[in-house]
Amino acid sequence: MQLSIIVPMLNESAELPGLLAHLSQWREQGCEVLLVDGGSQDASRALAEQAGFIVLQAPRGRACQMNAGSAAANGNTLLFLHADSRLPADAVSLIAIAVDIENADWGRFDVRIDAPEATLKLVSFMINLRSRLSGIATGDQAIFVRRNTFVAMGGFPEQPLMEDIELCIRLKKLSRPACLSAKVSTSARRWHEHGIWPTIVLMWRLRWRYWRGESPEQLLQAYR
Among the CATH numbers 3.40.50.360, 3.40.50.300, 2.60.40.180, 3.90.550.10, which is that of 3-192? Predict the structure, then answer.
């Protein structure tokens, strides 16, 4: 397995020192690492390039950025990582087992929200349980997929929200995901900025509206 890690970023200069240090270990293990900038107005691109990383440019939007990264990637397996998330130490070997030995077309990790609050620990547990039961993952769970499978599915739908959910819906028609119990650590910054309970309510409301058929463009207004 040759793994390409694709990271969309936008105005992440505050996050980048920790992110680049994290990504360096995967690059040292032979992974291809591609950062895809969506038009940052801060020093994000310069910081990443100064650290020796490949930085691609794409129109703003995670779907567009991740599709641009996948188009440039050389790996036969793609992993999509949010800029505020961190992979577990054995991520590469776990993905290799899932893809090469268990023949999984795609998969995701469990998630751990990086915060001490008991409420967020419960939220993490519920996200993982929901994902395991439904076969649907979110971008915070570091979705990985065989390159040829990703191409056959048409990549991420280039919509402003729920692109991860929509891709999983399509992939699930092919097969259920490999649900890895190792945890990706993700930042609690949105939960802290907007409040834990308001964020929980908002996320469930958006999912319900999307399931009811509302467009991602309509949902984006509420997400902001």
Answer: 3.90.550.10
Sequence-ordered alpha helix ranges (H) in the chain: 16-28, 44-50, 62-72, 91-96, 118-134, 147-152, 163-174, 189-194, 196-211, 216-223
pLDDT in tens, 108-134: 999 999 999 999 999 999 999 999 999
What confidence tier does 216 reach under pLDDT thresholds 50, 70, 90? confident
Contact 85, 5 (CB under 8 A): no
- This prediction has a pTM of 0.94
The pair of structure tokens assigned to 135 is: 């076969």
Contact 178, 149 (CB under 8 A): no
Q: Which residue bears the tokens 């991740």?
A: 66
β-bridge pairing 106-114 and 3-9: unpaired
* Residue 54, token pair as written in the block: 């490949």
Q: Between 163-174 and 62-72, two packed helices, what is the crossing angle to 10 degrees?
A: 50
Nearest to 35 by CA among 25, 48, 26: 48
pLDDT for res 223:
67
